[in-house]
Amino acid sequence: MQKFLLFTPGPAEVPSRVLKAISEPIIHHRSQDFREIFFEVREKLKKLFATNQDVIVFASSGTGAMESAVSNFFCRGDKALVINAGKFGERWSQICRAYSLEVEEIKIPYGYAVDPSDVRKALQKDGKIKGVFIQGCETSTGVQHPVKEVGEVIREERGDDILYIVDGITAVGVFNIEMDNWGIDVLITGSQKALMLPPGLSMLSASQRALKFMEKSDLPKFYFSVKREMKAQQEGETAWTPAISLIKGLRESLRMIIDEEGLQNVFERHKRLAGILRNMVEVLGLKIFAKKPAPGLTTIEIDDAEKIRKRMRELGAWVAGGQGELKGKIIRIAHMGYYTEGDMIYVGNVLKQAVEEFKSKASAN
Q: What sign does the CA torsion over 95, 68, 213, 92 have?
């Protein structure tokens, strides 16, 4: 049986102690045992999001929280400004259109981050925009957007008349994002990245400003109703049957992140891991694709990307390829969550071996 380590930007590696917590006997979700676990999770999630607001948990992938961020806070015909710099920026546009929002995009070439001045121009041009949608990290390209600076522009231009929605699925727990201090109205994340869990949970927090918008929303919502979940989760339960085992695992991973390593140390580790891998990439003569790379993953321009990726998996390292127009042109290697310096040296050496093998074959031909 082949053994490999996951270096994909979701799902990522899961620590053994988290796996152990997930595998514990199931408990009933309408019980004091579950409430005690869930209350602890909720308090630690507030620290992770840097917010005093509730953080609610859905049994879904991150896209479920993205959909909730649209359906709960807007009205039919509202205008959305979407920062589209890759596949997940495109997803914001697709969800907004599915709920009958009018979408205007700031379209950015793959590999580049948004310029906050372009957001300012768009807001000055159109006073009807009700929401700005962005990724903290565009996972398809590895780019980090200037979330804080964009938030400053939004508040300077429109004050409380607009919502700022941030997809933090490959950002929260990877690098600093301060929901309350940066004027973020809706922040979301998912379980399978920096939180070191299998896929299956998403989280969302909404500002007081967003909750006022929510009262006027006329879009359909049922399973992903923020109002319904907030009421239930404040009492230590969920509106619907939760992913009990994953929530038990989440408590363990949050203890590791918040209580043991500490958030700032986690952020510094991610920067350090990124630096180790990127130095090895540069020594190989390869180019980093992202012009402003995020610390959670490294995207590498490479010929025969899919063949290199396949060979790396055969050698024991499972990395990701490009998406959309980048398919076959880049590989993506994650270093968010449960990774060490030794892991980066390992995957860097696997990359080196795969590249040298293909160079050798090319020379022989």
A: negative
Do 133 and 114 lie in one domain? The reply is yes
* Pair (122, 161) in one structural domain: yes
* Together in a domain, 288 and 330: yes
Q: Are residues 288 and 152 in the same domain?
A: no
Q: For the segment 318-342, what is each residue's pLDDT rounded down to a tens digit?
A: 999 999 889 999 999 999 999 999 9
Last residue of a domain, one of 202, 227, 259: 259
Query: Which CATH number fits the domain that encloses residue 267?
Result: 3.90.1150.10
Structurally, how many domains does the chain consist of?
2
Q: What is the value of pTM for the model shown?
A: 0.97
Q: Which of 225, 259, 293 is the last residue of a domain?
A: 259
Same domain? 35 vs 99:
yes
Per residue in 76-91, pLDDT (tens digit) is 999 999 999 999 999 9
Q: What is the 3-state secondary structure (H, E, C) of the chain?
A: CCCCEECCCCCCCCCHHHHHHHCCCCCCCCCHHHHHHHHHHHHHHHHHHCCCCCEEEECCCHHHHHHHHHHCCCCCCCEEEEEECCHHHHHHHHHHHHCCCEEEEEECCCCCCCCHHHHHHHHHHCCCEEEEEEECEECCCCEECCHHHHHHHHHHHHCCCCEEEEECCCCCCCCCCCCCCCCCCEEEEECCCCCCCCCCCEEEEECHHHHHHHHHCCCCCCCCCHHHHHHHHCCCCCCCCCCHHHHHHHHHHHHHHHHHHCHHHHHHHHHHHHHHHHHHHHHCCCEECCCCECCCEEEEECCCHHHHHHHHHHCCEECEECCHHHCCCEEEEECCCCCCHHHHHHHHHHHHHHHHHHHHHHHHC
Residues 271 and 252 in one domain: no
CA of residue 141 relative to chain centroid, distance: 13
Give the domain range for residue 294. Answer: 5-12+262-364
Q: How confident is the model at residue 361 (pLDDT cuts 50, 70, 90)?
A: confident
